[in-house]
Amino acid sequence: MAGHSKWANIQHRKGRQDEKRGKAWTRVIREIMVAARQGGGDPSANPRLRLAIEKAKAVNLPADTVKRNIDKATGNLEGVNYEEIRYEGYGIGGAAIIVDCMTDNRVRTVAEVRHAFSKHGGNLGTEGSVAFQFKHCGQLVFAPGTPEDALMEAALEAGADDVVTHDDGSLEVLTPPADFEAVKTALEAKGLKPEMAEVTMRAENSIQLAGEDAQRMQKLLDVIEDLDDVQAVFHNAEIAE
Fold first, then answer.
1. How many other C-beta atoms lie within 10 A of the C-beta of residue 65?
2. Which CATH number characterizes residue 62's domain?
3. Terminal CA-to-CA distance of the chain, rounded, Å?
4. Residue 22: inside a domain, yes or no?
5. CA–CA distances in Å: residue 165 to residues 4, 6, 18
6. 56: helix, coil or strand?
7. Count of domains in the chain?
8. In this predicted model, what pLDDT tens digit does every residue of 187-215 receive, in sequence order?
């Protein structure tokens, strides 16, 4: 992936997530419920649930809310059943977009996602149309100035796949999804704390967008992210500030 604007893109994305903190609660609750329903309500035996609870703490979701929704998902309380759906499509300049949703109404969700794409210059594609351009992996991003040699040694020792150095000085540690939590814990134990850490769909190659195209792409992404059923949006656009 081209790295010249990697850090700017990460910071921009974090800023937009902070702006939408209220909606973050809804997304985290859905993630907790799906994780608990699929893997059980015991975080010690369910890595996906552990990660969801960590996200809940990051957005200050109350612990009793976390517990109540785990109970709903595991059948101890009555609750809504959500299913996971992934949509793929194209944005401005042919940029690839993946949209992960959790919904209790598949018909409503696909209509909303399709409308967002078509109204703002994109096209909803078929399953598999862009997913091959992404890698499912753990991603930990470190700020410029992080000691590269120390990070590389610690990351590879902990089981990471790769450490990528970007032109702007930021560093990116990539892990197999199953090893993400162990690598993150090992790095933090050595004082190496990432600015952003998640299991994600990482674009293998990027498309540079600037000027009006960059603005249109950002608008498209914002509209999709604002949909109620959308959990996460991944894309391969490097959007110039």
1. 14
2. 1.10.10.200
3. 18
4. yes
5. 10, 10, 26
6. helix
7. 1
8. 999 999 998 888 999 999 999 999 999 99
